[in-house]
Amino acid sequence: MPAKIAGVLCGVLLAAWGAQRPAAPPAKPPAPPQQRDLRVEKDVPEAAPPAPRIPRSYALVVGIAGYQNLPSQLQLRYAERDAEAVYSILISAEGGNFPAENVRRLIGPRATLAALRRDLEQWLPAVAREDDRVLIYFAGHGFVFGGQAYLAPYDVEVNNIAATTYAMDTLGALIGSKIRAKWKVLLTDACHSGAINPEGDNATINRSLLDLSRSLFSLSASRDRERSFESPDWGGGHGIFTYYVVKGLEGASDENRDGIVTADELAEYVRRNVREATGARQNPTSDRASFDPNMLLAYIPSNVAAGAPPPPKFGTLVLVSNMDGVEVFVDGKSVGVVNKGTPLTLPGLVPGTHTIKAVKSGYEPDGPREQMVYPGQPSTVTLRIQIQVRRKKAAVELFDQALELYNRGGERNYRRATELLAQAIGIEPRYQEAFLYLARVQNALFDETAAEKSFRQAIEIDPGYLEARASFAGMLLDVGNMDEAIRQLNFVVQRHRNHAMANYLLAQAFRMKDQYQQSIEHARAAIRLEPNNAEAHFWLAESLRLSGQHEESKREYLAYLRLSNFDSSLARKINYYALGFLAGKFGQKTRASQHDIWKDLRSLAYFGLCDAERVQKRYDAAIGYCQKSLSYYPDDPYVHYVLGLCYARKYQETGQLEALPAARQHFRTMLALNADLAEADYARKNLASIDAALAARP
């Protein structure tokens, strides 16, 4: 709901438009060479149990590999990749089940000391409540200086440790006393993270971590004075600790197969596997006295299965490929890319049968096929990508005809394209491009149920089909399923960071989630990749305005208006994604054609300019922009409301009586269009005040 700002007009409160318009819709691996170390001085029921209640959850994920002020030999390789992997499993529906908007990421240069302090000391204490779950993850360097342990942000200075790092005792005190939550989780993959909670050395334990009134699960990468390792031998490149944390949260630690990963299960899984993988040189630590062992860390519904729990010993897959750039999926989840001559090692797998599929664009996949993982043993799998995709001529001709009709647009062409694509798929059942365009046509015909099925079939044929995932996410945004859209888009940008469409759709998704900083970052990435992407400028402008950066937002609105200033009849030829939902959010229509979307966005851009000028008390400029907004949609009640406010404010500041009748007209129009809006009461009060002022006029 928009925020309200009150002003005074003739002794009566005058409500002002708030900051936000309603939101738019092998064998044991060898010892690794790189060290994260700097020193400066049950039984399973036959029927599936009900899904557990997952508390409201917040997380801060931090990862720094390249440090601003450290020499090259002290830079890390995989800490940022670790953090991205943790983020992905946290927001997964088969994993942490955290809402994406509740997870903040500080990766690389964004992980400054100031940003750490802001999110740890302001954001988390402000949002978390007594019954919530809070998780903090850090991957990067740790320091010991003067007998104290510190976490190193991106801008750490080796000659000024105390002032440019985050003290672990401060972190402990913060978690113990300022962050309220039923369950609190601290995961630290840094060289001396064990100093938070070293085994057998109670004198150095931060007592604030043992706040027994709330459950704290602190799992650190190593004991005090031990080193935390990273290596390419774990999942293609990870910190060893984080690799097993992610595998555990994916379900490998769920030994009783009830679908729930508890704190006890994760701690035991990570501790056992890291110790074995490093020959006992690295021992993750946790304090059993300070947390609820049944604390729910992840929920994996697909893990729920009848039968006895798997053996406690874990196995390893070693994946070898005959080609470069082969992406591998194990049990439907991407585990990384294999290159020829460079095996991908996946330790810590639950013994039993696993499904493996290897894909490479332009080739038929290898699999899916089953591979047995034996406890305590490596199983080598040779992946063979050999057959290039060759389509039957008849199927290709049908596809080309359908694509031509799709590009023409219009309901009749879409329906004929649907028939041709179905015929092409009948000839070539694994024609993923045909499934993609069938999904797009079905979406254009507003048959989202059929479109989702077709999108998922395209992705099932080729799980690495990024274009299909991005387009699917666009439709999901269109119908309001933003969480699944973000998960699909996150998959895309993790594999192709410079995917412009995925970045601009993430900008829209995070704007709709009111996560303005993440929206800004993705919009700027999209603009860097495609400077003429008008909609990226629009979402950047929206998030800048709503985060209080009004001058910069105006430049971006104007950039959008300039780039979208074409003949409106061409709008249907513009490949808009995920914008139909926007219209419904504003109450103007339930669905929108592409032409309507073009009008929507231009109207909203002018409204954004109006609101930015209003906040800066430039009422004449604001009035001009709102009037331009009404030229696209004369019956937008919100714009009339803001125009009423602008005219009334103008009267307050200048005394020009002629502004009052204009204010009255727009408030009345707003009420006539929609008297049920939250702002309606304020509009009525303003009308009464205006009428009184006009009646008192000599």
Describe, in plain words, how this protein is organized in 3D.
With 698 residues, the chain is an alpha+beta fold. It has four domains: 5-22 and 591-695, Tetratricopeptide repeat domain (Serine Threonine Protein Phosphatase 5, Tetratricopeptide repeat, Alpha Horseshoe), CATH 1.25.40.10; 34-303, Rossmann fold (3-Layer(aba) Sandwich), CATH 3.40.50.1460; 315-383, Carboxypeptidase-like, regulatory domain (Immunoglobulin-like), CATH 2.60.40.1120; 488-585, Serine Threonine Protein Phosphatase 5, Tetratricopeptide repeat, CATH 1.25.40.10. It is built from 22 helices and 23 strands. A six-stranded mixed β-sheet has the order 5-4-6-10-11-15, sandwiched between helices. A hairpin with a 2-residue loop joins strand 18 (326-330) and strand 19. Helix 15 runs antiparallel to helix 16 (550-563). The chain is globular. The two termini are 39 Å apart. 51% of the residues are buried. Residues 1-33, 35-45, 196-214 and 570-595 have low confidence and may be disordered.
